[in-house]
Amino acid sequence: MLRTTPDLLLLKVASMEVEVRMPDLSISGHPIKLLAWLVEEGEMVSRGQPLLEIEADKSIMEVEAAIAGKLTAILAQESQEVEVGDPIARLHQTGDYCRAG
């Protein structure tokens, strides 16, 4: 889909579902404990917004959203231990416009 503005041409980028996986934040390689979700299913999140708190190697950290979108599913529950790389949520990245050319 093309959209024009007075001074530039924009292309619609397709929307898509993105799987959020537990990042590798553990030095010891032990499972990471999901402490709390900071957003709820159905909420819009911006890139860099904290999504959840985790405990890894006795340190508490926040995991941020890598993209903007809508949190469509929470796959890992609070107090659950999760392995690095396991799916923990799904984000629906909404279509956006970018400059053509």
Model description:
It is a single chain. The chain is an all-beta fold and 101 residues long. Helix content is 0%, strand content 51%. The strands form three sheets. A four-stranded antiparallel sheet has the order 3-10-8-5, with no helix packed on it. A four-stranded antiparallel sheet has the order 7-6-4-9, with no helix packed on it. Strands 1-2-11 form a three-stranded antiparallel sheet, with no helix packed on it. The two termini are 15 Å apart. The N terminus and C terminus are likely disordered.
Class by alpha and beta content: mainly beta
H-E order: EEEEEEEEEEE
How far apart, in Å, are the first and last alpha carbons? 15 Å
- Give the overall average pLDDT: 81
Gyration radius from CA atoms, angstroms? 17 Å
The total of helices stands at 0
Form type: elongated
Poorly predicted ranges (pLDDT <50, ≥5 residues)? 1-13, 97-101
User: In which range does the helix fraction lie?
Assistant: under 10%
**How many strand elements?**
11
How are the strands of the largest sheet arranged?
3-10-8-5
Strand content: over 45%
Describe the main β-sheet briefly: 4 strands, antiparallel
